[in-house]
């Protein structure tokens, strides 16, 4: 059986690296990461992912735009949104766009893993 | 002789202190209520700061994903809380303690790490004696550890000066080297040419001011040690010997004459070694961008040793911390860390006293010595026949080395890898101490099951010698027999390296080597350290693996922590598939480490014993130390103010108890009878909640006086440092304050390394009543401290408390209950305070939490032997 693949987008390298390390080694997923929304959207046009984890606030294309694009291209792919602060407005907006889950940073790795497990088919 | 100048200085000094004393002595007496309000506010502010520190510690412990924005958000709040604490503390103590400069210094170090602002060190060269605790990064890990051994443990370290990372920056700047380290524009992915960088370093010159400073230092060294003395010029990169060892990655040049041009040339070689292919591979593995690691250099007076070697204060393979391993050889220790000859091995067992359990004398065919004819060189010579099989160390020296190593381990609170040398006069010198990577015991269960059941039909290989497991693990792949180092260039990914002797050069292939097997070698070599860091299964000292194993042949290998080795012919595909990737650790991410280092200036607690000489603002290394200092001195201030008979009768009274709780009582209304005949005892207390609490604390058997051995394991990773060594125990005489009224108690109680806070109101109206209980800290590691928190949690839950836990901080609340229930519960809390004192050291595993919680609830307070 092939592994689930996950796309991570965050403009902080440490966030991408820590998430990749946890999800690849401890959960056995295949993970690709990008430091900006534009490059990630290019990749999304080429490849379908089972899950997308994206930062909300990024220069250029932000997390909401990533979310909308994912839902347009692959309606069944779940998206998790992360932000630096617990921001209610962002959360409501993201929920309207059918976000699967919403995490303020710092993110408890255990909670993120559980959320991903719940979302995967 | 007293000159006019120093006389005026003395008068001024006397004047300052006298004025201060008079101001304090005859200052307008402040109402006790006002003083207490300040005191309470100081403690509230401190508690808030401690909660923020606990939160940071939890978020940065590897279980959360974070970025620098989290620290940028939370640190200003923490710093502001500290400022509030300091401001209130200064008001309380009338500026009696110079705590602000200590805070400003630590804050500046932290700000520099977070924002790149602050006052970085401005010394290019320092003698080891002048290296203070906050210069760790400037002098590099290796030199910093030596400075700690010398300045704090007073151990015998050869005279040393350090060229700091600032000197390195100046050298790069002066020679325009920073530019050539940048990637080519438009081709950022391509690494700059490392060899060109090395050539430019070797062709570079020291800036004139640095050269002049070095000249002066060398003259001092010559005047101290004579013109024939030489130096060992050793790398000391920023993170070297810290979370990762960088063992054998950089140059060490021995026997360098104390002549400016020779020393400069040696230093440039060390700088250039940052850009060796092996060292770059290691840095890349640790997430360093090309050229971003900075180098300091330790210039250590060269010892001409009779014998040298390495000490491991734990067995790195099976994780046994009760064993100390010592290797020794004649002459210089280079052959020990190169793993090229068979050296002497000693195993010392720790128990009530140290005992030599094993002595194995090696053949020591060769030895390395300083070349007296050619300064700057060392020579390998055949060991004289009469010395070959002679042990290098007498039993007394083995035990002396083991004792010193034990002290060093206690100081650093983690197993150590120590280099030592013995000179002709019989003096032992310590040359290096760094953390030793040991196998974590729980890894055993993680071995894949299919690997344990490896196909027994495969033919096992037998070697001349049994072999030594350096790093356990399972691997399968094609054998690659190495004859020359340059053949590493052709090493195929996923193969098993088989070589005659081990070498730090092997780091180049570590990202893709499946395992390493060598004919010679020891567990204490540089390569062995690196293999453990990166979890590469490694077996050394097989005697003849290069002859037995066929180049290109397929094998499967299994090495376990008990030292058992199985190498069989043929491949097991399932093993090959599972073992090819290395498990990367969070610590290998540069940014992760950087943010963890920030925490080092915040969370550890070094200032524990208020009676120790080093309990001063100047000895505060962390924000936690500042808080500890403020807390203790606030309590002392309250005691001093209220006991000062000049302005009236003492209002703070020491409570005489059967248990050493060190409590002083401040009555704010009806907590004590109007007239008391000293000494104040528990029977005199009229405060309902305090009486109940004391009843519990002095409950028969609850304040257990059974000796609980805090062994080295307990202190590893712990928070305290100096005072542990000074006292050998945590039972300091404390000053604790209980503020009471008829219906109220507020008790802040520090017991050794942990803190209790009880705040309770106990009136006839249940709606007004509450108990607030807070417990934090401990001497042992976080696992054990957390276990104690679980125990307290289990007990308090039984009594209906609402509980919050963060790491080793527990906050429990109970409110709106009747007076009788408050009294009964406070009695239980008193018993728990007494019972939990040493519980972190007593609880050996999770099942003990259940056991001891159950015993407590049954009223049985004894520890199981």
What does this structure look like?
The complex is a heterodimer of chains A (121) and B (865). Chain A has 121 residues and is α/β, with parallel strands linked by helices. Chain A has one domain (5-119): Rossmann fold (3-Layer(aba) Sandwich). Chain A has five helices and six strands. In chain A, strands 2-1-3-4-5 form a five-stranded parallel β-sheet, sandwiched between helices. In chain A, helix 4 links the parallel strand 4 (78-83) and strand 5. In chain A, helix 2 (37-46) packs parallel to helix 3. By secondary structure, chain B is an alpha+beta fold. Chain B has four domains: 131-296, ATP-grasp fold, A domain (Dna Ligase, domain 1), CATH 3.30.1490; 307-435, 2-Layer Sandwich (D-amino Acid Aminotransferase, Chain A, domain 1), CATH 3.30.470; 444-587, 3-Layer(bba) Sandwich (Glucose Oxidase, domain 1); 654-858, no CATH class. In chain B, 38% of the residues lie in helices and 20% in strands. Chain B contains 27 helices and 30 strands. Chain B has a nine-stranded mixed β-sheet. The radius of gyration of chain B is 31 Å and the shape is globular. The termini of chain B are far apart. The model of chain B is unreliable at 1-15, 440-457, 576-581 and 714-733 (pLDDT under 50). Classes of the chains: A alpha/beta (121), B alpha+beta (865). At the A-B interface, helix 1, strand 6 and helix 5 of A face strand 1, helix 3 and helix 19 of B.
């Amino acid at each position: 059986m092939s592994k689930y693949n996950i796309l991570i987008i965050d403009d902080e390298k440490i966030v991408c690296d820590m998430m990749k390390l946890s999800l690849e080694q401890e959960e056995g997923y295949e993970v690709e990461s990008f430091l900006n929304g534009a490059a990630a959207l290019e990749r999304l046009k080429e490849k379908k992912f089972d899950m997308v984890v994206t930062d909300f606030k990024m220069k250029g294309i932000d997390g909401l735009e990533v979310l909308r694009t994912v839902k347009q291209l692959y309606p069944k792919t779940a998206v998790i949104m992360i932000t630096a602060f617990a921001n209610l407005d962002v959360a409501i907006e993201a929920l309207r766009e059918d976000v699967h889950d919403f995490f303020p940073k710092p993110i408890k790795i255990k909670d993120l893993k559980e959320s991903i497990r719940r979302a995967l088919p | 002789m007293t000159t006019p100048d120093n006389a005026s200085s003395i008068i001024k000094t006397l004047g300052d202190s006298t004025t201060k004393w008079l101001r304090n002595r005859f200052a307008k007496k402040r109402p006790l209520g006002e003083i207490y309000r300040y005191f309470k506010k100081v403690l509230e502010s401190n508690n808030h700061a401690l909660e923020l520190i606990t939160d940071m510690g939890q978020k940065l412990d590897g279980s959360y994903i974070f970025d620098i924005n989290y620290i940028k958000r939370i640190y200003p709040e923490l710093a502001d809380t500290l400022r509030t604490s300091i401001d209130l503390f200064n008001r309380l103590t009338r500026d009696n303690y110079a705590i602000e400069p200590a805070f400003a210094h630590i804050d500046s170090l932290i700000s520099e790490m977070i924002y790149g602002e602050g006052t970085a060190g401005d010394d290019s060269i320092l003698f080891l004696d002048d290296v203070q605790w906050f210069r760790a990064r400037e002098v590099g890990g290796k030199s910093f550890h030596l400075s700690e051994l010398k300045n704090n443990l007073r151990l015998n370290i050869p005279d040393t000066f350090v060229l700091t990372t600032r000197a390195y920056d100046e050298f790069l700047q002066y020679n325009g080297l920073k530019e050539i380290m940048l990637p080519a524009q438009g081709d950022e992915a391509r690494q700059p040419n490392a060899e060109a960088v090395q050539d430019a370093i070797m062709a570079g010159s020291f800036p004139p001011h640095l050269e002049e400073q070095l000249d002066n230092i060398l003259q001092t060294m010559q005047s101290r040690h004579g013109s024939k003395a030489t130096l060992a010029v050793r790398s000391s990169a920023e993170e070297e010997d810290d979370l990762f060892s960088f063992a054998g990655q950089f140059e060490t040049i021995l026997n360098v004459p104390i002549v400016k041009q020779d020393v400069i040339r040696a230093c440039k070689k060390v700088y250039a070694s940052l850009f060796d292919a092996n060292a770059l591979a290691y840095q890349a593995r640790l997430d360093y961008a090309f050229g971003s690691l900075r180098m300091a250099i330790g210039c250590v007076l060269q010892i001409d040793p009779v014998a040298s070697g390495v000490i491991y204060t734990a067995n790195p393979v099976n994780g046994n911390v009760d064993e100390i391993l010592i290797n020794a050889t004649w002459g210089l220790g280079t052959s020990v860390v190169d793993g090229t000859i068979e050296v002497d091995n000693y195993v010392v067992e720790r128990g009530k006293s140290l005992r030599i359990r094993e002595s194995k004398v090696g053949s020591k065919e060769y030895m390395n010595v300083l070349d007296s004819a050619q300064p700057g060189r060392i020579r390998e010579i055949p060991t004289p026949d009469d010395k070959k099989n002679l042990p290098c160390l007498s039993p007394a020296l083995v035990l002396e080395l083991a004792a010193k190593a034990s002290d060093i381990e206690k100081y650093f609170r983690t197993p150590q890898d120590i280099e030592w040398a013995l000179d002709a006069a019989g003096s032992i010198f310590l040359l290096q101490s760094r953390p030793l990577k040991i196998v974590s015991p729980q890894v055993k269960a993680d071995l894949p099951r299919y690997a344990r059941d490896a196909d027994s039909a495969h033919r096992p290989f037998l070697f001349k010698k049994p072999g030594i497991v350096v790093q356990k693990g399972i691997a399968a792949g094609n054998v690659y027999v190495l004859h020359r180092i340059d053949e590493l260039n052709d090493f195929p990914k996923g193969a098993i390296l088989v070589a005659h002797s081990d070498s730090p050069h092997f780091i180049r292939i570590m990202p893709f080597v499946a395992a390493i097997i060598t004919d010679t070698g020891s567990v204490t070599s540089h390569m062995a350290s690196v293999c453990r860091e990166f979890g590469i299964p490694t077996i050394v000292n097989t005697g003849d693996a290069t002859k037995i194993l066929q180049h290109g042949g397929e094998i499967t290998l299994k090495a376990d922590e008990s030292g058992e080795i199985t190498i069989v012919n043929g491949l097991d595909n399932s093993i090959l598939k599972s073992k090819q990737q290395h498990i990367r650790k969070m610590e290998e991410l540069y940014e992760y480490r950087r943010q963890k280092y920030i925490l080092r200036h915040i969370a550890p607690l070094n200032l524990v014993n208020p009676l120790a000489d080093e309990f001063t603002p100047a000895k505060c290394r962390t924000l936690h130390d500042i808080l500890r200092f403020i807390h203790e001195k606030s309590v002392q201030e309250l005691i001093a103010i209220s006991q000062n008979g000049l302005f009236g009768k003492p209002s703070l009274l020491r409570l005489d108890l059967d248990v050493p709780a060190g409590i002083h009582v401040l009555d704010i209304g009806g907590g004590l009878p109007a007239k008391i005949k000293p000494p104040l005892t528990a029977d005199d207390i009229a405060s309902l909640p305090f009486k109940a609490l004391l009843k519990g604390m002095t409950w028969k058997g609850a304040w257990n006086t059974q000796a609980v051995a805090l062994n080295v394991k307990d202190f590893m990773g712990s928070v305290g440092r100096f005072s542990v060594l000074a006292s050998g125990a945590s039972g300091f005489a404390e000053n604790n304050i209980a503020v009471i009224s008829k219906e109220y108690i507020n008790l802040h109680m520090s017991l050794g390394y942990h803190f209790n806070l009880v705040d309770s109101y106990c009136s006839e109206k249940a709606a007004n009543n509450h108990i607030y209980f807070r417990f934090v800290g401990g001497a042992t590691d976080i696992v054990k401290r957390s276990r104690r928190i679980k125990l307290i949690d289990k007990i308090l839950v039984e009594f209906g408390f609402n509980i919050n836990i963060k790491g080793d901080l527990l906050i429990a609340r109970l409110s709106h209950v009747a007076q009788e229930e408050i009294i009964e519960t406070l009695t239980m809390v008193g018993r728990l305070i007494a019972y939990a004192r040493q519980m972190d050291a007593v609880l050996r595993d999770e099942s003990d939490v259940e056991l001891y919680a159950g015993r407590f609830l049954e009223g049985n307070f004894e520890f199981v032997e």
